[in-house]
Amino acid sequence: MDARVIADEDRVPEFVAALGRGGAPSEGRAVQRILYVTSEMADYVKAGGLGDVSAALPRSLGQRYDVRVLIPGYRQVTSREEDIPVVARLPAAHGLPACELGRIDCPDGLTVYVILCPDLYDREGSPYGDESGADWADNDIRFGRLGLAAAQIAAGVPDLGWTPSLLHLNDWPSALGSAYVAWAGLQTPSVLTIHNLAYQGLFDPSRLPGLGVPDSAFGVEGVEFYGKLSFLKAGIVYASHVTTVSQTYAREITTPEFGCGLDGLLRKLDGEGRLTGILNGIDESWDPRTDRHLESPFDPNDLKGKKANADEVRREFGLAVSRGPLFAVVSRLVHQKGVDLTIESTESIVRQGGQVVVTGRGEERFERAMQKLAERYPAQVGVRIGFEEQRARRMFAGSDFLLMPSRFEPCGLSQMYAQRMGSLPIARQTGGLADTIKDGVTGFLFRDPSLGAMLSAIYRAVDAFGSRRKLNAMRRAAMSETYGWTRSAAGYCGVYDRALAGPSQ
After folding, report:
1. Which CATH superfamily is domain 31-247+275-281+486-500 in?
2. In CATH, what class is 305-481?
3. Entry pTM
4. Is 228 marked as binding a ligand?
């Protein structure tokens, strides 16, 4: 049985009734309506790169489409907005509670719909877990509610007066939206963007009834993944089109090495022309000429200001005055990011006269290891556990090199930020890093996720540092790279148009 088609008798009447029928878009309307569904948005709450993308991409797409954002009403959202007017009520279905839909009109004209359900979202912590980092036990309900809300809006909510032509879903938290649309027999197309395939949203099959998942959908051709329910697989199976956040990552995830057990399904999509890589962008605030958080402005034609920023970073991290190279780490401290390789390479960097500054949070073992390095080399290694964007900006502007030895990197934003600020990335040749760094021109790439390969790239960087002419030429080349959202938006426009045209196109 084709997993994208669920027989009438398998549909749950309560669920279909909850979706309703009303407010469908009128035919022939010139401007298509896009509902951008996300679990993060940097305007309010951000746990990773998805938050930045969700703040920038809908705004860039708004030049062509009527784009509106749907996000859960976390405490970070409701506490920032004094009064969020309620514009609709969405009914309950199975174990997914009823909720209200609020509306925020941003100063720049972007409309954000907020799912107001305090029992699910009004909590301290991140979008996904408590303050200790533990996942919320009811994340299936919390994000099943997000996907259901998207499907209910797609079905038409009369009080809303707006019905999307297409759903744009992001990662596992919203991925179930495409499945709900299919199970209800709706024709609304959907695009799912995979920002990181490693996070799939896996839950015990005992949770299926509460989510309204039809029994017939729980199989190898449907939402089942090694005996568990996979939100992300559901999104991949039922979406009209799947995108990833770089061209290289789109190719990589069709292989066993990077496919996280879904490579076969993704190869199938690729063969059908329904898998596309579109590189993320960065916003225009990453400009060393105008960034107010920097100690001194600078530009490609006048790089003197980099030294003032480097001196400020050294003071901030308590490092000794030095003429040697300054290496930065701005990263989640997790295995994916190759943090163990960074830790192992630090002693060699220090021996060559370099210094390392680190900011980030992650696995406790890596946090402890970084702090021990700072204790061992207090004048050469500085560590700040946690993340503050202003500090990160100063680190990008002040450092000579950015260490980014990721084992895999769907897109990566730090290497783009670094290049705009004249810091040359030293990175593994994978995913978006391969797509955004020109080896020996705007940074240094290495292939194998090994200490030897990383040290070889570091030695090349140190050699370049020894030649002011070569170093500044690379800095200028890096700063001249453009990673604006216009190009990314154009890629999504193509995908949207294909999805809206239907499967025959």
Report:
1. Glycogen Phosphorylase B; (3.40.50.2000)
2. alpha beta
3. 0.91
4. no
